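> call design_seq(struct)
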């Protein structure tokens, strides 16, 4: 093979190598590699915070734990904060605490409450009452929210706490009961209750009403005693309806104990729909938490 042919072949080889490097190897290196899926950072749950102005600031890195569609709170990580809250409420009896529970639209509510938010708030209210806080110092509410659940269908938080001041002094339930006059068994007699009590406050006026009503009903078996429960407008409408129904039923049981036939007692519940006075003031709301009884 002559020298000219070898030089020609060498030139072709070098040209081919250059083209290969330019169009194949370089293009391969320019290809954007497939991105590696990013791993979502774990969401750190918000800690518990209960604040009442400059008077109280309770905080915890933990919070209330809840299972999806469950109203019972896991309080293990906030036990100390709850105990401090109890001590604060006992030392400040003028405080009114509202507990608001959150719930998701995708949850199933198997409780007797209108929604899981109220049920969750009521769970903590029951804890505080058991610890010695008067039920009348605690209000509950529910709020629907978009909730995020763990793979195990649990979450933390869901409860908030707000404080207000109770009005100083003012009319008590005993005052209201003592002012309810007897005008005859065919005119409604309003019965009032101490906070957290199922028994109405006894007075000379309502005792006279019951005595005469019992005598009349005994002699007139076709007549009835209508017992109607009422509530104020604080909180959820459905809860207030249930409260008024419970009050009416509690009074019915007392009347049966007085000797009035159960067949002659009719109960009704109006919730917050028929207030006797405005609900705009604490005094007015007390007057609306009542049971009215009348012979028909």
């Amino acid at each position: 093979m002559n020298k000219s042919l070898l030089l020609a072949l060498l030139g072709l080889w070098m040209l081919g190598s250059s083209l290969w490097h330019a169009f194949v190897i370089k293009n391969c290196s320019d290809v954007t590699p497939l991105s590696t899926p990013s791993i979502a950072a774990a969401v750190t749950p918000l800690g518990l915070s209960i604040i009442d102005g400059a008077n109280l600031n309770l905080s915890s890195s933990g919070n209330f734990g809840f299972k999806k569609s469950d109203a019972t709170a896991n309080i293990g990580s906030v036990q100390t904060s709850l105990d401090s809250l109890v001590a604060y409420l006992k030392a400040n009896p003028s405080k009114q605490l509202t507990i608001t529970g959150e719930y998701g639209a995708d949850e199933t509510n198997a409780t007797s409450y209108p929604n899981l938010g109220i049920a969750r708030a009521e769970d903590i209210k029951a804890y505080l009452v058991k610890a010695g806080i008067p039920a009348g110092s605690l209000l509950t509410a529910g709020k629907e929210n978009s909730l995020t659940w763990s793979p195990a269908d649990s979450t933390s938080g869901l409860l908030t706490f707000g404080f207000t001041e109770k009005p100083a002094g003012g009319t008590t339930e005993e005052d209201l009961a003592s002012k309810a006059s007897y005008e005859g068994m065919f005119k409604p007699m309003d019965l009032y209750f101490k906070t957290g009590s199922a028994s109405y406050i006894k007075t000379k006026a309502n005792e006279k009403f019951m005595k005469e009503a019992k005598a009349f009903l005994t002699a007139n078996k076709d007549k009835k005693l209508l017992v109607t429960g009422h509530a104020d407008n604080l909180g959820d409408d459905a809860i207030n309806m249930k409260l008024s129904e419970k009050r009416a039923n509690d009074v019915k049981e007392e009347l049966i104990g007085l000797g009035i036939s159960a067949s002659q007692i009719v109960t009704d519940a109006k919730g917050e729909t028929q207030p006797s006075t405005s609900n705009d003031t604490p005094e007015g709301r007390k007057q609306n938490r009542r049971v009215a009884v009348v012979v028909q």
